[in-house]
Amino acid sequence: MRAHAALNSMSPCWSRCSPPWAGWSRIIWIAGVQPRAHGNENPTSAPSGTFEASDGPINIAANKDEQWRALAHHLGLADLCEQADYRSREARKRNRQALTARLNAVLRTRPAAQWVEELNRIGVPAGAVLTVPQVLLEPQVAGRGLLRDYPDVPRIGRGIRIATTGIKVDGQAPYASTRPRTWGSTPMKSCVNSVLS
Known about the structure:
The chain has helices at residues 2-16, 20-31, 65-74, 89-94, 96-107, 112-121, 132-136, 139-143, 186-196, and strands spanning 48-53, 56-61, 126-128, 147-153, 158-163. The protein is of the alpha+beta class. The strands form two sheets. It has a three-stranded antiparallel β-sheet, covered by helices on one side. Strands 4-5 form a two-stranded antiparallel ribbon. The longest helix is centred in the N-terminal third of the chain and has 15 residues, at 2-16. The two termini are 47 Å apart.
């Protein structure tokens, strides 16, 4: 009964928060359109995807016309809003490559963190694209207990940090209480041999 009630209370959310594949399944079944690869671009809008800041990639999602206008004005490209190639969402999608080149020319002048702060402040969703090491340094990763340190691991001669499950049970992040086994230990050799045979 409790699981059923929880599912029913979530049902309204699914109509607004469905996973990405759910949208494509509707397009395939209802419109008969087969999806194609778009790389890091949002196929339903432009400009929406990965762009180039001076220090690395940045993701910008100016999906609504008002977000597009705010972005163009902020980047000093307000004149693009009146050009036929960029006036509507459909026109921007058709001219995505040229538009991306124009935006990148401005975005490359400053670091991603500056653009992210400024664009989010004016209502244009943006975020820096992080490397794996950068992600692992994020406060949310530490807060979830995703990483675990094991000091003084034999045969390595130092401590190591490994990723855990990232989940919490009763408010606690489960983890192995003993340090990882090292190469050369009998259980490790058995495990490797069973995988390779």
